[in-house]
Amino acid sequence: MRIIRYSEAINEALHQLLASNKKVFLIGQGVTSPWYVGTTTVGLIDRFGPHRVFDTPVSENAVTGLGVGAALTGMRPIVVHPRMDFMYYAMDQIANQAANWHYMFGGQMSVPITIWGIINRGGEQGAQHSQALQAIFAHIPGLKVVMPSTPYDVKGLLVASVEDDNPVIFIDDRWLYNYEGDVPEELYSIKIGKGIVRRKGKDVTIVATSYMVYKAIEAGKDLEKEGVDVEIIDLRTVKPMDKQLLYNSVKKTKRLVIADASWKTCGIGAEISATIAESKLLTTLKAPIIRITLPDAPAPASSVLEQAYYPESKDIVLAVENLLKYSCDNNEKCDY
Amino acid sequence: MYKKKSVNTDIPLKTLREMYLTMLRIRKFEETVASLILKKEIQTPCHLYIGQEAIATGVCTSLRKSDYVFSTHRSHGHYIAKGGDLKKLMAELYCRETGCSYGRGGSMHIADPDIGLPGSSAIVAGTIPLAVGVAYSFFLQKKDNVSVAFFGDGAVGEGVFYESLNLAALKKLPVLFVCENNLFSTHMPISACLANIDIKKTAETFCIPTARVDGNDVQSVYKTAKKMIENARKNKGPAFIECMTYRWYGHVGPNLDIDKGLRSKEELDYWMKRDPIKKLERQMIQQKILTIAKKKVIEEMIKKEIDEAIAFKNKSHSPEKIDIARSVFKEE
Question: What is the ipTM of this complex?
Answer without folding.
Answer: 0.95
